[in-house]
Amino acid sequence: MTIDVPRALDSTTPSFATLAEELLDDVYGYLLYLTKNWAVAEDLTGETFEAAFKKWRRFDPGRGTPRAWLLAIARSTALDWFRADARRRKREERAGAIEHARELTPFGEGFSAELAESLQALSAGEREVVALRIVLDLDGEETARLLGISVTAVSTRLSRALSKLEERMRDHDAVA
Amino acid sequence: MTPSPELIRELRASRPSAPAELRARVRAVASERPIRSPWASWRFPLRRGMLVAVPAAAALAIASAGVLGITRSESPEPISQAALEKSTLQASPEYDTSTAGSGQRAQRVSATLTVEVKDANAVSHAAQSALDLTRSLGGYVVASSVATGDEGSASITVRVPVDKVQDAITGLSDLGRLVSQQVTIDDLQQNLDELTRREASTRTQISRIRARLESETLDPQTEAVLRSRLQTLRADLVSIRGELAATNAGARMSTIQLSVVTPGATGAVAPASRIDRMIDEALNVLAWEGVVALGLLIVLAPFALVGLAAWLGRRVYRRHEEERLLAT
Questions:
Q1: B17–A25: do the CB atoms touch at under 8 Å?
Q2: Class of domain A111-176
Q3: Distance of residue B52 Cα from the nearest chain A Cα, in angstroms
Q4: CB distance A49–B41 less than 8 Å?
Q5: Using CA atoms, how far apart are residues B267 and B260, in angstroms rounded to an integer?
């Protein structure tokens, strides 16, 4: 859904609580696709809304919809987590320990086993574009702005991700 | 390759929903009372600020150029009476060597004037008036050249007593429209003091030699040397006295060079109107403002380029890092 408001602080602007209620599923879904880990997605969703709450007074509707604004904060939060996770993995590799927790915590409820497994095979960038364009139904321009790439690059990435996903699903069906 | 509609349907159907615990947590966050700090929400509107600041700076530059152009476009005025009185009082005609050290200084005053008259007839009339005025002030004409014709002009050099130079400049300026005026004052006192000292010293030496020649019995060789020295000193004394006289004369009389021109005469500068002068001055100020802005740009450009390169480098690095992180 898209909520367009003229000014952040005028009377027509929905309150942050209303906005959080309406956009919570979008933010959580996006983060779940990005991290493929429901526990991490929950944590990051909480962090996203805390950060957004602090920045809410500075939100400028003239520069984008509240959903795009929230998703940008979610993306930034997720990237921070990816960085921290990469550092943690490096430390563990040096120490000889392998973390399996991530693999043991799948997408969670609501996904078929085939879809969950197929999504696991995609990269985070591919899952991200599937989430934004297919699941959350953002248009190409909004997605491009959020990801900081061109509309063409978004289309290419989405096409590649869906092809890969479809192929994985077919393979799964064939095995079954 | 077009994705199958079944896949799209399945992806949309399995759209995740936030669990109840997370929803409660976010509700709790959203229901908190925000801390209201006057500065927390304030952010400098860079783009809007630039949109206002750039035209404002340009308007200020143009306005200041206009104001300076107006204030500097005044017509050239003759030197004030007070300034002339001061300079002429200091250069008194009675000044000579006997006044050295009395506090009054010997000075040479010279002036160059250009006046414009309406036509060739007026040139002749002005030249004659200038000569008459010079004589009436006790001065004399050093050189005079008057050309008549379609575009007449005259060049007259006169010398007047220094105490009359103020009257002379005022009278000559009134012969037409004053186009330009320059008064130069050279100090002669130091030169005069030096000549006076040399004169006294020479006279003393001459007296001593004459005394020796008259009172002492000298051998022929010494007497010849002293007589030769006496001759040289007498010649020096004559020269010094000549220089003293010339310097005193320079301090007594002022030289005024007058040019009388018509508007069409060669070399005559057409008088600019007030508006023309104002525009010229405003353009000059604008040019200087441009020079200052360019200077600042030259000084600041390297820093700006380094900053821009750092910003671009950081941006590229972040983009690559993001791609690497999301490729897993």
A1: yes
A2: mainly alpha
A3: 19
A4: no
A5: 11
CA distance B265 to B247: 37
Which bin fits A96, alpha (ψ -120 to 50), beta or left (φ > 0)?
left
Rounded to whole angstroms, the Cα distance separating B316 from B310 reads 10
Q: Which residues of B touch A49 (CB under 8 A)?
A: 26, 29-30
The structural domains of chain B, with segments of one domain joined by +, span: 49-78+270-296, 90-188+250-269, 191-248
Contact with chain A for residue B41, Cβ under 8 A:
yes
**Global pTM value:** 0.52
Report the C-alpha gap between A130 and A155 in whole angstroms: 10
Contact A110 B326 (CB under 8 A): no
Cβ of residue B24 closer than 8 Å to a chain A Cβ: no
Provide ipTM, 2 decimals. 0.81
Structural domain boundaries in chain A: 1-105, 111-176
CB contact under 8 A, A28 and B322: no
Does B8 touch chain A if contact means CB atoms closer than 8 Å? yes
Best CA proximity match to A115, nearest among B43, B281, B236, B9: B9
Chain segment B119-174, per-residue pLDDT in tens: 888 888 888 899 999 999 998 888 888 887 777 888 899 999 888 888 888 889 88
Answer yes or no: do A25 and B16 touch at CB < 8 A.
yes
B321/A108 CB distance under 8 A: no
Q: Which residue of B has its CA nearest to A81?
A: B325
With CA atoms as reference, report the closest residue to B16 among A169, A17, A34: A34
Please check whether the two domains, A1-105 and A111-176, share a CATH topology: no
Closest CA of chain B from A73, distance in Å: 15
pLDDT per position as a tens digit, A34-78:
998 889 999 999 999 999 998 888 888 888 889 999 999 999 999
CATH 3.10.450.50 fits A1-105, yes or no: no
Which residue's entry shows tokens 């990469």?
A: A86
Distance from CA of A38 to the nearest CA of B (A): 10
Q: Report DSSP state, residue B84.
A: H
Q: Where are the beta strands (DSSP E) in A60-135?
A: none
pLDDT, one tens digit per residue, over B57-112 is: 889 888 888 888 888 776 554 444 445 444 444 443 433 433 333 346 788 888 99
Interchain pair A124, B327: CB under 8 A:
yes
